[in-house]
Amino acid sequence: MRLERRAHVPLSLAIAAPIGAVVAALILAGLLIALAGVPVFEAYRRMLIGAFGSRLSISETLTRTTPLILTGLAAAVAFRSRVWNIGAEGQFYLGALATAALGSKLGLHLAPLVEIPILMLAGALAGALLLLVPLGLRLKFGVDEVVTTLLLNFVAVLFVSMMIEGPLKDPLAFGWPQSVPILADMALPKLLPRSRLHIGLLVAIGLALVLYFIQSRTRFGLEARAAGLNPQAARFAGVPIGSILVRVALISGGLAGLAGAIEVLGVKGYVTTDLSPGFGYTGVVVAMLAGLNPIGVIVAALFVATMFVGADGMSRAMGVPSFIADVIVALSLLTMLVALLLANYRVRR
Amino acid sequence: MMDALDIFATAGLWAAVLRIATPLIFGTLGALVCERAGVLNLGIEGIMTFGAMVGWLTVYHGGDLWLGLAAAALAGAAFGLLHALLTVPLGLSQHVTGLGITLFASSLSYYIFRLVVPVSGTPPTIEPFQPLRIPYLSDLPFLGEAVFAQTAPTYVAILLAFLIALALQKTPLGLAVRIVGENPHAAEAQGIDPIRVRIASVVFGSALMALGGAFLTLAAFNSFFPTMVQGRGWVCIALVVFASWRPERALLGALLFALFDAYQLRLSHVVGKAVPYQVFLMIPYLLSIAALLVMARRARVPQALMQPFRRGER
């Protein structure tokens, strides 16, 4: 018995893989919910209610989806070119910090219509720069970027902590370590009145569509894919690998930084060191569940957000620790890897 | 007031070095064994967290401290088996699988911990390992306090570094691990089953990683809290490169690293508020990156690291 790679993966399998993976993850996590002494189906029903049961919960789920689309895209773009950017968490924080600093009373003071795009770009730039360091180390010195991006996450959060307890500290926050807030008119317009849902969701979806177009219809998109699939062959075919990967890193780090910027502009208004409940790391799962497809990222991000928001509700109602959401998401990454294998290969006797 | 250099003359610093180094020694040796057989195990961060949780929980429920370590090792081995099954026979991406193991193992640790220990103001504690004073040696001036009054797992970690170095160099099993990591096809031609050797190495290495985590809750601290591993796993992965994949250098690297860490802790007290404390906390991570940078071109990488082995395929 051996595995044989399929020349072409049919669309039905490409869609069945993540669905199967998620179902498997939910079944496995169900065992853990049962361990908590709680009826499993009731728990999952509560989760759905928690995520979609009311206008408020739906808006919360979509608000949570927004940064996950962006960090998911950040991972998807990078992984497609075999740039292992696991540093989205740090890039998110640097983006958030840059945005908060420039958008506060210490910052630019421009008209909101001009300044808000600038703030988003600044956040993206901060994230992009942070990823250029490990990419540069890989291209110049052959240092594996997985470990360096992971290590830089801790450095970035400590840097944020230093700034919000130092020069960017909010003097009105009663001693809590949080950054100066952005000016009130820099807040992103709401998509839905009386909710936290803001137009950042449209920005994220728009970027996913743009990215899909770039990846499938442009020369750069093809070269970026070739650089990941087979760097040697790509180099012989005249693809300038180095500069392609730098551009990929700029996009990937930029998306993660933008996620931080938008979270500040749309939801929080300031930066703390718990601004992200692991958006960066979860982005990796989103990207993998999406099969690295930018459109798929939207759906996968919605799924992951559903788990997190739903688990909060379920936890309140039934006392199951809300960490179950993290478990489901992590499990679905592992089951997705196996599902992808089954989709990409067929078993021959 | 103490001078920045006087710190080196305190036995407390050197005792702290060994204490800080212990989880790193376990973790680095674990990652090293996996990688010498050709498998990168990025599950380390999560496996250390799980080891910390299981070890603590065992003791909290009345188990002996050594039973806690054993339970941690067993749990680590189980996650190692999962990582190995996914990456070795199935040949899945070692990067992504490892990351998945880390996410899974750490979230499962938090979930189980919360299930057993409800939220409370002060986290519950256990009675941790006490320093084991080596007879006579611990009476030596300075050296006694600095080196020979450690907790038992620290001595075990140091001993293990030499044992693993010896095993890799001098035993048939070690040779098998090395060949599989360098050239699995040649290993197969020698009658060695690369798949079994890789699985066994990852299982063993992961057990060591979990011991490193358990040291945190059973000796260094006395309670478990989420995110307590704080990137130590990633530091270990960097230390393996720094050590050029050699156990005795891994020991040296972990000690050197711990020296910087222990020193910065004390230096921050001396320097006071002139430098933000976060700068000192960043040093271990920046140091790891620097170590990677210095050794990247010089290190002897196992040639088949991250190369999946498939029978009959070249």
Structure description:
The model of chain A has no long low-confidence stretch (mean pLDDT 94). Chain A is globular. Chain A starts with a strand and ends with a strand. Chain A has helices at 11-35, 40-52, 55-80, 88-103, 112-141, 145-165, 200-217, 219-229, 231-236, 241-268, 279-289, 294-318, 324-344, and strands at residues 2-5, 345-348. Chain A is mostly helical and 349 residues long. In chain A, helix 8 (219-229) crosses helix 10 (241-268). A two-stranded antiparallel sheet of chain A has the order 1-2. Chain A has a single domain (2-348), classed as ABC transporter involved in vitamin B12 uptake, BtuC (Orthogonal Bundle), CATH 1.10.3470. Chain B has a single domain (6-295), classed as ABC transporter involved in vitamin B12 uptake, BtuC (Orthogonal Bundle), CATH 1.10.3470. Chain B is globular, with a radius of gyration of 20 Å. Chain B has helices at residues 11-36, 44-60, 65-87, 94-116, 143-147, 152-170, 172-182, 184-189, 194-220, 232-242, 247-271, 277-295, and strands at residues 132-133, 149-150. With 314 residues, chain B is mainly α. The model of chain B has no long low-confidence stretch (mean pLDDT 91). In chain B, strands 1-2 form a two-stranded antiparallel sheet. Chain A: One of its GO terms (cellular component) is plasma membrane. Chain A: Keywords: Cell membrane, Membrane, Sugar transport, Transmembrane, Transmembrane helix, Transport. Chain A: This is Simple sugar transport system permease protein. Chain A: It is found in: Cell membrane. Chain A: It is a multi-pass membrane protein.
